Amino acid sequence: MKKIFLFFIIVNITVVVYGQVQEQQNDSISEKFIKIEGDSVFQSSIPLHEAYVFGKLKFSNYDAKLKYYILRRKTIKVYPYAKLAAERLVELNDTLLLIKRKGKRKKYTKEVQKSIEDEFSEKLKKLTRTEGQILVKLVHRQTGNTSFDLVKDLRSGWRAFWYNTTAGFFNITIKAEYDPVNVHEDYLIEDILQRAFAAGKLERQESVLDYEYGSLINKWKGTATKK
């Protein structure tokens, strides 16, 4: 029953949140000529992600180490769903801007919901409570909105309140925000994500929230979980 309810919440949340590069030198032009996936553009440089030098993980004790690796497994498992949520949000909003009639907008939203249910229902049903809570936080990381607000925008204030109240029985709050600046566990999640991005284990999607990972490293250095 708990997993079915968790799946019901996550599906509604997810619905709302709908080459190779080569450099060539041109003899007649001083700028570098960059070819990207078959399209030619004139540009003197290409944007790159910040590169971080990760230190070796060190833990204060075995329990801290175990806690971190469990959190890593759960975070890597649910991150793709949060990434999908952000992508769906952009797609959904872009499409709804083109649909003027309220009835057709509602119909389209239901079609998106059914599509997501068909694609991900079995996987989402298998999420644990803690995995569901991490997913709720990562949805906030990727969209800038709490899951409560996203459900409220799609459904109604009353339904969002009902979701949050009922989820509370299972120690899940869809009002949860992602705050790696002030919450140590959220910082650990960010650390896990950045290491996974760098290792190519996860496809990078930048957070829309205002924080800088480099400064977080200095702030949380020497905590009980990781020294």
Short summary:
With 227 residues, the protein is mainly alpha-helical. The chain has helices spanning 2-16, 62-96, 102-125, 129-143, 147-154, 157-168, 184-199, 213-220; strands at residues 21-25, 32-36, 39-42.
Characterization of this structure:
- It holds the Pfam family DUF4294.
- The structure is a single chain.
- The protein is mostly helical.
- The chain has one domain.
- It contains eight helices and three strands, in the order αβββααααααα.
- Strands 1-2-3 form a three-stranded antiparallel β-sheet, with no helix packed on it.
- β1 and β2 form a beta hairpin.
- α1 crosses α2.
- It is elongated and about 55 Å long.
What is the SS-derived class? mainly alpha
Largest sheet: 3 strands, antiparallel
Neighbour order of strands in the largest sheet = 1-2-3
Order of helices and strands: HEEEHHHHHHH
Mean pLDDT: 75
Shape: elongated
Terminus-to-terminus distance: 40 Å
Estimated radius of gyration: 21 Å
Any idea how many domains?
A: 1
Fraction in helix = 55-70%
Quote the beta fraction: 5-15%
Q: Are there runs of 5+ residues with pLDDT below 50, and where?
A: 18-45
Task: Count every helix, treating DSSP H or I runs of 4 or more residues as helices.
Answer: 8
Number of distinct beta strands: 3
